[in-house]
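Q: What residues go here?
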């Protein structure tokens, strides 16, 4: 028999956090947004392990094939560099990419003649008489030593990498045909410098997510600290912090970021710090408002009666109850940080080349929008739009999921 007819006999199962998560993933747009963010995170984490161009900064340039359309393919000759073997551990390749042991030369056709390979340089018109290259067969296959500025080799002796130099012309030609003449396909085409667009976009994901993550961390660190101090202690502490917040708030964000960037200098980490130092204001205002309403609650009075110190009351009792709106704002700040970084890179004061950045890619290729290669600027622009939209929609989903009325519905 129920003690209270018409009321549920037990509370809903699961914590409020679990119910908020369930409500979040009932939202179709939130699920799609989460999928986009997860895909971007995986691309950023795997980095050079999945890029077609695994050289540092995906910066392998071939001016002969600059600004080619998506799904473009070309024949290339793989030529051994005359350098000792450079061992590249997996962790180094994952984090920074590896300098390649070969150079790649695009060509239209080739032939062997008198112990040499003769190539016609790549030309999209198919003309084979514009420029030709000649290489000895051994120069293609071996890392040859240099004497007095000239390459030299002796058959039967090892090259710089320990490979025995051969003299069987037919066997060497077959090895070149089988292993050193390759076809490279560029799924998203090439940029104005002949770099692989797909690789540039994938490595650029690291910059966008990194600036968002570090900027949000800095904004949370400063915003939660100052907002908590202002809301809890009030009085002159509150007046001083609010005055400082209003001063920062009155300066346009992009101008403040540019000013901080000029002070700290141009560079990878400087941009992250500059963006983070401009995004804490909104967090501080929200935290202050939440704490002003929570500091008079009964559980805070109980904590004071038990003799708890102010630091414990703030960190253990008040802040956990005020973090819902902060999480939503952090998602929006993440999106804003990506946009700000892209804008700074477009202006040339953000992440500096050769580090790939979506904003830099737009700046380098925006002139092609009015030509016949608009995707060179549209592709990084679409990446920025999709990632920013995903964070904004996930923020809206979090706002709805963390709504007390929704999470406590039976």
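A:
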């Amino acid at each position: 028999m129920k003690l209270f007819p018409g009321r549920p006999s037990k509370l809903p199962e699961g914590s409020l956090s679990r119910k908020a998560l369930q409500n979040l993933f009932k939202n179709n747009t939130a699920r799609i947004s989460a999928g986009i963010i997860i895909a971007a995170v995986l691309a950023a984490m795997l980095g050079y392990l999945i890029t077609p161009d695994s050289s540092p900064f995906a910066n392998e340039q071939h001016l002969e094939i600059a600004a080619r359309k998506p799904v473009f393919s070309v024949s290339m000759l793989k030529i051994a560099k005359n350098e000792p073997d450079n061992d590249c551990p997996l962790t180094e390749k994952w984090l920074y990419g590896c300098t390649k042991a070969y150079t790649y030369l695009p060509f239209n056709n080739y032939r062997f003649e008198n112990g040499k390979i003769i190539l016609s340089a790549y030309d999209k018109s198919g003309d084979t008489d514009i420029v030709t290259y000649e290489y000895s067969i051994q120069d293609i296959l071996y890392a040859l030593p240099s004497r007095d500025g000239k390459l030299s080799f002796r058959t039967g002796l090892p090259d710089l990498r320990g490979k025995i130099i051969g003299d069987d012309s037919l066997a060497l030609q077959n090895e070149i045909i089988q292993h050193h003449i390759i076809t490279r396909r560029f799924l998203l085409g090439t940029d104005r410098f002949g770099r692989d667009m797909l690789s540039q976009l994938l490595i650029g994901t690291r910059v966008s997510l990194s600036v968002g993550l570090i900027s949000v961390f800095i904004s949370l660190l400063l915003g939660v600290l100052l907002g908590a101090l202002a809301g809890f202690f009030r009085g002159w502490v509150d007046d001083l912090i609010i005055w400082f917040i209003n001063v920062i708030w009155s300066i346009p964000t992009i101008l403040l970021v540019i000013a901080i960037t000029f002070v700290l200098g141009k560079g990878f980490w400087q941009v992250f710090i500059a963006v983070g130092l401009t995004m804490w204001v909104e967090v501080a205002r929200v935290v202050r408002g939440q704490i002003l309403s929570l500091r008079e609650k009964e559980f805070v009075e109980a904590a004071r009666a038990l003799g708890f110190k102010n630091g414990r009351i703030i960190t253990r009792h008040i802040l956990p109850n005020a973090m819902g709106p902060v999480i939503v704002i952090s998602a929006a700040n993440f999106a804003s940080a990506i946009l700000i970084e892209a804008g700074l890179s477009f202006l040339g004061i953000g992440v500096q080349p050769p580090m790939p950045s979506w904003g830099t890619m737009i700046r380098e290729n925006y002139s092609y929008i009015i030509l016949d290669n608009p995707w060179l600027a549209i592709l990084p622009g679409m990446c920025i739009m999709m990632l920013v939209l995903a964070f904004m929609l996930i923020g809206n989903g979090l706002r709805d999921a963390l709504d007390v009325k929704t999470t406590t519905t039976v």
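A: Context that may help when evaluating the design: The CA atoms of residues 172 and 178 lie 10 Å apart. The beta strands are 72-80, 102-113, 116-121, 132-136, 146-147, 150-151, 181-186.
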